[in-house]
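Shipment paperwork, digital attachment
Item: protein structure file
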Amino acid sequence: MVIYGVALLAGCMLVGLWAGDVLGMMLGVTSNVGGVGIAMLLLIFLGGYLMDKNKMPASTESGIKFWNGMYIPIVVAMAASQDVAAALDGGLIAILAGFVAVTASFLVIPLFGRSQRPTPLEEQPPQTKSSPSSPAPIR
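Attachment content:
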């Protein structure tokens, strides 16, 4: 059933968040350290194990695929908004560093485009005329 896939995903998420909190406490940080990544790795390994043992029906797998498609973009968007908020709290130097990185990326893109030039028409080998597919009739 699809609900089993959602339950597996939710269980991995809860265990991953708990492990991230414990890892944060062990490192002396007051935040979750890698909880989402731990949850995703746990889901990959647990899902692979269940598929190898033929214990995961196709409907359960479809439940996991559905929420993976929804979950990853949401987590990326949340992390990006937190990064922007932290940059704004960090002051002018954080905003300047972000601006410099984006500007440098835009300036490098044309260099990659120029690295492989197409061969001009004059330098290409001449194409031979193709012979007809059927021989000409003999008279």
